[in-house]
Specification:
- With 135 residues, the protein is mostly helical.
- The protein has 6 helices and no strands.
- The protein has one domain.
- The protein is globular, with a radius of gyration of 14 Å.
Length: 135
């Protein structure tokens, strides 16, 4: 049986694909975090090979079991709202769930913030790297 950090690690490629789709549809990072925090259990995992157009954020987020991802990002959102610092909230998440994939996600977000560029493209590439590593 997988521990919570391993479960979250396996959910991250789906999350990155969903956030990529949402960002391309005009959603902000905050809206992506909020949608992740509000996910519910669905029956079908996100098709990692499918192409999406203007998909609603919640339709882009189906993951076979929303936990632990939903709870982890609900805490990120609560920490972000309480303290106002997104990266402090993410660092708290990394402390609770040590994960190479989570390190990749946080690094991608930091790089985009400091250097600029297209976050959707960065999440797409990062998600593919993580997906291949987990395969």
């Amino acid at each position: 049986m997988m521990d919570t950090a391993e479960q979250l690690e396996r959910q991250l490629p789906h999350l990155m694909r969903a956030w990529e789709t949402a960002l391309r549809s005009g959603y902000s990072v905050r809206q992506c975090v909020e949608a992740t925090a509000q996910m519910t259990r669905t029956q079908q995992p996100l098709d990692m090979t499918a192409e999406y157009s203007s998909l609603d954020i919640m339709e882009a987020m189906p993951i076979a079991d929303a936990e632990p991802l939903r709870g982890a990002f609900a805490q990120v959102l609560a920490d972000w709202q309480a303290g106002g610092d997104f990266f402090a909230a993410l660092d708290g998440l990394r402390g609770r769930y040590p994960s190479p994939g989570l390190d990749l996600l946080v690094t991608a977000l930091r790089v985009q913030r400091e250097v600029g560029g297209n976050l959707a493209d960065l999440l797409e590439a990062t998600g593919l790297v993580l997906q291949k590593r987990l395969a």
